[in-house]
Each structure stands twice: as C-alpha cells, then as structure tokens.
Fold:
Amino acid sequence: MEFDPLNRLVIISNRVSAPTGSHSGSQGGLAVALTSALREYKGIWFGWSGEQTEEYSGQITFARNEGVTTATVDLEEQDVEEYYNGYANRTLWPLFHYRVDLAEYEREFAGGYQRVNVRFAETVRPLIEEGDAVWIQDYHMFPLGEELRKLGLKNRIGFFLHIPWPPRRLLSILPEAEALVRTMFAYDVIGFHTEEWLSSFVDYACHELGAILDGDTLRLGERHVKVMAVPIGIDAEEFAGLATSTRGRLAFRQMRDSAVGRDMIVGVDRLDYSKGLEERFLGYERFLTEHPEERKEVFLLQIAPPSRATVGSYQRIRTSLEGIAGRINGAYSDIDWTPIRYVNQGYPRDVLAGIYRAAKIGLVTPLRDGMNLVAKEYVAAQNPEDPGVLILSRFAGAACQLTDAVLINPYSAEEMADAIMLALRMPREERIERWQKMMAVINREDIGWWRRTFTEALMQVPLPETEPA
Ligand code: GDG
Structure:
C-alpha cells in the first residue's frame, strides 16, 4: 500500500531538538536527520522539553522553526527522577550496554517509566491524525506504542533503537524484561543499528515469549512486527563541508599551531562509562610506556562534555577519569609537553570538524555502542589527500560497516598501544586506501539513506481493514 504524501510523520523522542538554522549550533546528527524527515513528510516532533513543572499538566508548547513543528511538554520532578534519571539512565542504559554491575532495579523507577509513557501517549494522542505514521525513538519509550494502541490508535507505528540490544541471558536480569518485550509487539516495524542487536532481540522474543520468526517478520499471537537492521549514518557531505568551512579551517589551524609539529590523537565522547574512556587513557599510557621515544611526538586531545551529571555512576566516571588523566600527566609530562589534554566542554560542530581533520588518529574505543557517529564524523572530516587513521572498537556498531578502520579490543591496553603505533607509522597510500573504502560506505549509507530505508519500510505496512461495527 502506498503512503499518501498528504499524510504526515509524527516523531516521538525523549528530547526534541528544534532546528538551529546554523551548522555551528549544537543540533547533533540524529536531530538533523529527524528534522529533515519532518521536512519531507511534514508533521510534528513530540517529546519532553527538558524542563520541570510542579505538576504534570500535559500542556503542550508548540514551536515552528524552518518548517518543522515541535510539540513539547514539561515533566514533574518525580517523573524526571524515576523515568529519566531512574529507569532510562540507571536501569536500561547500563544493562543494555552490558554493565550489569551498574544497573539498578527499583520498582519506583519501573513505575515512573510506565507512568510517563502513559502520560506521553495521552498527551500526544490528540495530535495524531488518521493516516499519520508515527516513529518512536529509543529506549526511553519502549512501551509508548502499546499505550497508544490502548488509546485506539490504528496508525502505522515504527520504533528505532539507538543503543545495543543485549543478549537474551543479560536481558533476563531485568525484572520487567518479558513485559517490556511483549509491549514491543504493538509496533509495525522495529529497527536496530546492526544484525547483532537485531538477532539478540529475535532470540529473546522467540525463546522467552514463544514468538516465531518468518522471514523478517516476528509473530506473537495476533501481532506481527517487521524487524530490520538499518545502521544510522551521518550527512557525510555536510560534515566534510564543515571541516573546510571558515570556522572549521580556523579550528584546524589553531590545533596544528598548538601541536607544534606533534601528531594529535583525538577522542570526542559524551562523558559516559560506555565510551571506554578509562580504557582509552590506559591504552595510551601503555603506548607511552612501551615507546618512550615517541613520547614527545604525540599528544591525546580528549573532548568529553559532561552528560547525565546528576546520576551517581556518571559522577564516579568523571572523578575516575580526572584521576587517571592527572596521574598520567603527572608521571609523563615535561616542561614543554603534556601527554593528555582533557577537556570537559562541548564545541560547535564546525569547530569539532576542524579538530578531527587536524588529528592524525581518531581514537574511538567504546566498550559497547549502538553505532557511534563520532567514528563516521572523524572519517568524513579528513583530507582525502592525507587522511588520518581511525582506530575503532570492535564493540561499536560502526565496526560492522567501517571494517577498514584499525579495529581493536578496547579492553586490551596492549592492542590499543600497538594500534596507535601502527597508525602513526601507516604509509600515506594505505591511509588513503582505507579512508576511501570507509568513505564509500559512509557516503552510501548516509543519514538520508537511514531515514528513507526506515520510513519506506514503515509506509509499506498495510493499514488494518476498517473494523467491523
Ligand atoms: C546514541 C548511541 C548512536 C559530541 N561532543 C560534542 C558533540 N558531540 C556529538 C558528536 C556526535 C554525537 O554528539 C554523539 O553521537 P554518538 O553516536 O557518538 O553517541 P551517543 O550520544 O551515545 O548516541 C550511539 C547514536 O545514539 C545515534 O543513533 O550512534 O551508539 O549511544 O554527533 O559529534 N557535538 C558538538 N559538540 C561537542 O562537543 N556540537
């Protein structure tokens, strides 16, 4: 069945990011992709404003920027604590990133998560018109589709998960696992970044719930859902343009000047324990120990803007990283050289692009990552004539596509040290060859491809026959 172009797309995600109209803004790749999907299909983007209110009222604030309508609601303090800081970021995020040791299971969290999803469903329901397609994003909203169905919504509803889906045995640790996966059968299409996350989901659904896989369709009783792996991409052309924009070039020059002939290794990550920052520092330290002759030839710039700062595990990782960076700098620095420049602030995207381009090595070492866009941005920002080398964790979703990066196990400081050495010594022809192969994938499966692939799959879902009276 064809999608009627007059019908709209309703995107729902935890946070909503209105278009900023400039490349120097803070709107990330995902936000850019979603706004362009909304421009194509028309429609609205609904979610939490990020603000708190005394008592949840469901009052929607509408805004229109550059052809995109956003609709946001405030949440009350208890919602933020239990739903966002609680279940989303203290239960699901660590567990889905294999950090069983950090995941907390509190019934209040689970209750608050459910309550907020019901609230979102009730609030957004009146905004959805017949024929609209609904696209829900990420782990904050697993049960939202089911809550919308309970309110009678018959429209097509798709869901995309931006983080990994954990193996069955791991997920079973979650007290609400079965109920949560059952709710996902309210969707028509579910997308994951990689085949690995997809097959873990299918494994759980088949073995724990008795679902049956038929081609790319999972069946459970009356419900069936199409499952697909669609890796998210970046706007490669735009990002390459940012690296050579006026501000990008300025940032590039500033970095090269301040490097005084040394090779820069760069890392850019939200300050999150899933990103393998401690392991990265320790792997770099190993490199410094094993190759004393290289010490003053390189430095590591780590940009790590704080994230989820009210959650204890994030405060602990921040303290730990400060300790490790301080210890390494104390042990190896000289009057004219500091091995790690550790920066806890964010930079505009064009500045970031210039910094990536100035770096001989992009060091991306998550312990587990749904995709990882920084890896792709680093590659896109390089000079085609003299590109840097991407060192990438095997455990990032991006490793499935960027097989020409230097792939490493981030838990092994030795592998990381060897990879840094290999990258520093890599001949230009090999760097160019690897870069071209990675760029071909990044260009082919870019952000437009991602959203088209998903939305087209969603639009092809036949709508249910009109209900008999
Ligand atoms: C989740 C999944 C998946 C970072 N520092 C600055 C800055 N950033 C931007 C990067 C990049 C984005 O933030 C980070 O994206 P990642 O993909 O690397 O990681 P998560 O935030 O964990 O994203 C991940 C993604 O969703 C999409 O599905 O790939 O696996 O965990 O775009 O450039 N941007 C600016 N200044 C900074 O200092 N402007």
User: Anything to note?
Assistant: The first strand starts at residue 9 and ends at 15. The chain has two domains: 9-233+448-459, 236-444. The first helix runs from residue 29 to 41.
